Amino acid sequence: xxxxxxxxxxxxxxxxxxxxxxxALCFLAPFRWGLGGALLWVVWLYLVGEMLLRLFPNNIIxxxxxxxxxxxxLPAPDGGNGAINKAALxxxxxxxxxxxxxxWLAASALLLWGLYALGxxxxxxxxxxxxxxxVLDITFVLFRCPFQRLFMGNHCCTSCRIYNWDYLMMxxxxxxxxxxxxxxxxxxxLAVFLRWEIAFYKNPHFFLRETNLNLTCEHCGxxxxxxxxxxxxxxx
Length: 236
What we know:
By secondary structure, this protein is an all-alpha fold. The protein is built from eight helices and no strands. It has helices spanning 2-21, 34-55, 63-66, 86-117, 123-142, 146-152, 166-171, 180-202. The two termini are 25 Å apart.
């Protein structure tokens, strides 16, 4: 919940600055002074720090975000040791992931085209676009995720196939205005995505509750389900 409130505060500050001084959020300039510049670099440092935690093994981030690390794998006694049909498992999990990607791509393209058609596609607008996705992302984790419900079919976010796609989904639109600020976030988010996908390709059994006991309610270390009416008490 603290992350949700922090991201919501960042978005609110960006919206206020956008409507009072839209140029203050132009991240193309290497350094900016004032509230706009401070907000830009707070967001940059925050996102870079979070993405670096997704790249290297640690016990700080939720289990769902670090299940691609081998140290987070606790094999189930009935097949969690990797002696499974990995190709079939990948196909099973990829179907929902592909549908989720297509929905995100279509929605993003439509919104960005709308901004372009209105003549409002500016660095400031794209910055708010990114923060809006950041708030939506944590909202889906804490409350209700349409991707999980409609496409993925996973029990909870901890076992989500696309958990670490979030930063690429947030930052991808920044590529429309290339510069150090935008490209550094896009490249780092792409690195997080590739790190995740390579791990999934090699070890898809890391990503399922049936094969990785660390993804079950009994072993979940963060308890994000508590904000979803304690679904672990009713795992069906």
